[in-house]
Structures are given as structure tokens and as C-alpha cells.
Amino acid sequence: MDALTKNVKTQEDEGYLRCKNREVLKATVAEMRARRAWTAIEWVKGHSGVEGNEEADRLAGMGAAKEHGDPIELEVPRELRITGAKLQALTQKLAYKAIREIKNRKTKPRRATNEAMERIIGDVETEYGVKLKPQSVWEAIEGKHITKECRQFWWKVMNDAFMVGKHWLRAKMPDQLKERATCAKCGVLESMEHILLNCEATGRSEIWRLVESTWRRTGNEWPELTWGVIMGAPAVVIRDNDSARRQEAENLWKAMVTEAAYEIWKLRCERVIQREGREFSQSEVANRWYAMMDRRIALDRNMTAKYLGKRSLKKEQVRAMWTPALSKGTQINWVEQYGVLVGIERVTD
User: Dihedral (C-alpha) 222, 224, 226, 229: value to the nearest 10 degrees?
Assistant: First the structure.
């Protein structure tokens, strides 16, 4: 509502660079200006029985359920078209964002990136019955429940940017380095899929076993793990028997799977590079996993601080997300009580 009223001038001065749905906003503002009369916009409370609001909710639900969106005419008449941004409104950050967007439009997606996206969309649809859009996957990776480290790891995996497997077999690569293409433990060509799903070195299967144990304890069904299901975790859609989305379960899945995949990658790198092939013990892997999960819970707890503004997480959201996975007997108000130590429930079997 503010985007169509009090923020219009600021948005136009900045060239709509801060707006996610800029083309829709531009077209809507142009339609309002094309009218010969004033346009009045009134805020009404949602889900309060207002006929127009209820109809809008119904139409939004119908639109969200469609596999492909309806075409919308977003062309703005020339006399109402506003392009660019005013110099006095342009900051260094906005200018850099504009330059990045221009470059991105000229850059063709990598073949490996397209293939990765197709696998994610296909595997998630098979497992969850939801067809994701590429844009929603990229946006989900930037979500609040994905840490900076995991976000960077995800981006590199999606773009096949890690020096793993076939990348060591380039024509000009010395024979000594070409040996790194093979997994020393399994004797096969290494790949990120092999590292996350098939490697027999201690660490991978142990991490996923611990994740599965925690996930099942929260009352959720464990999916069939595939490369696409793992990489599609940030954009997962989980519904209950009434088809309502379970946001707390989605957030927990995003956090655990992204942290687990990144931890498996770190274990692999430490084993291959720092430890020269010497494997971790199962107890070492378990201790690292629990310590990492406890740190993640503490991070989300700290992210509820009000001074973080829009970057902060809601206390109710963090509580609903993590409480099912915490040790038995944890106080219900553990998010607010910083003096209370909390941790994920340990597996005893």
C-alpha cells in the first residue's frame, strides 16, 4: 500500500532499484496516473469479513495454485514511462546494484547452472508434489534461515564452482594433480553428488543419520534424499493433511539440511587436505554436528534482537521452529531467557 502512495516519489527517484516487483509497481502507478479522477486507497484488516478483501484472498489462492501464472500486460505508455534514477537520489550501493543487474542481463546462465536447476525442480516436484520456479529457488537461498556461509556454499555448488572431480582432468592439468579427481576412499570420480550422498568415508552417512533422527523426532516424514532434494532445501514446501503450509517445519528443514550439507563438505576438505586422508571417528563427527547445531540455535536466538530491525527473526517463529528438536525439559520461554542453556536432543542409539 505504501509503495503506491507515500513511497512513490522515492521509488521513482531511485529508479525502482530497491523494489522486487518493480515492473508491476511501474505499471500500477502508470494506470493510476492515467485515470482522470483521484484514486483513493483504504487499508482494511485482513480476514475480517470484508467482501473485497475476502475475494482478493480467494483469487490470490487460485493464482498461487496454478502451475503457470497468467500473462499480465505490464507495458507502460511512453508518456507515463519513467526510466533511470536521479543522481541526487543515487547512492553508491544503489549504483552498484544497477550495474550488477545490467551485467546479469547480458550474462548467459552456465550450462551446469541450468542442469542443476532442472534437477532441483524435478526432484522437489517428485518428492513434495510442488513445481518450483528458478527465481523462487534463488530467492530462497537468500532467505533469513540460510546462514551466510551456507549461502555461499550453495551458490558455488549451483554454479559448479568447486574444484572437484572432472575439473582436475583438464587438458593442461599436470598428471600429479589429475589424481585429485578421484575419491581416494571410494576409487571413483569425485563430484558434489558423490560427496553429499555416496562417499563411504566416515562423516557423510553419520551426519545424515543424525539429521534424520532429529527430523523424525519432530513428527515429520523423512524424504528420499537425492541431490535435488538436498539442494532444493532452501525452497522446500511442506504441507499438512489439510494442504496448509507448515512454516515452522520448512524453516527447520532449511536450517538442518543446509548446515548438514555444508558440514559434510567441510569434513571432506579437512580429511583430504589437512588430515591427508585420515578419517574422522564417528564420535568426532557427532560432536561436531551437535556443536554446530547448538551454535546455530544460539545464532537464531540472538537474531530475535530488536535492534536488528528488518533483519531480525520473530521470537515466536524461532520457538516454533526449534522447540521440537530441543532436549526434553527445555523451558517454553527459552528464546527470551538468555541465561537458559539450550541444545538439540542427542541421539542415544
Answer: -50
Q: Residues 4-20: pLDDT tens digits?
A: 888 989 998 988 888 88
Place of cell 542415544: 348
Is pLDDT at 349 greater than 70 in this prediction?
no
The separation between the first and the last C-alpha atoms of the chain, rounded to the nearest angstrom, is 54
- Provide the greatest CA pair distance for the chain: 76
- Distance (Å, rounded) from C-alpha 117 to C-alpha 96? 27
Of 107-111, 135-139, 180-184, 290-294, least confident by mean pLDDT is: 107-111
Q: Do 316 and 279 meet the contact criterion of CB atoms below 8 Å apart?
A: no
Sequence-ordered alpha helix ranges (H) in 50-179? 51-65, 92-106, 111-128, 134-141, 148-158, 175-178
d(CA 96, CA 93): 5
* Phi, psi angles (nearest 5°) of residue 182: -100, 140
Q: Are the CB atoms for 200 and 186 separated by under 8 Å?
A: yes
C-alpha 192, offset from chain centre: 19
Per-residue pLDDT tens for 54-111?
898 888 888 777 766 778 888 888 888 888 889 888 899 889 888 888 887 777 778 8
Residue with cell 545424515: 208
- What amino acid occupies position 147? T
Give the type of residue at 282.
Q
Q: Helix axis angle, 111-128 relative to 134-141, nearest 10°?
A: 90
Provide the CA 228 distance to its chain's centre, in angstroms: 14
Residues 6 or more apart from 97 whose CB is under 8 A from it?
17
pTM of the model: 0.78
Residue 239, classed as helix, strand or coil, is strand
pLDDT score of 335 more than 90: no
Question: How far apart, in whole angstroms, are the C-alpha atoms of residue 303 and residue 301?
Answer: 5
All three cell numbers of 273, joined, read 587436505
- C-alpha 321/C-alpha 250 separation (Å) is 8
Strand partners, 189: 182
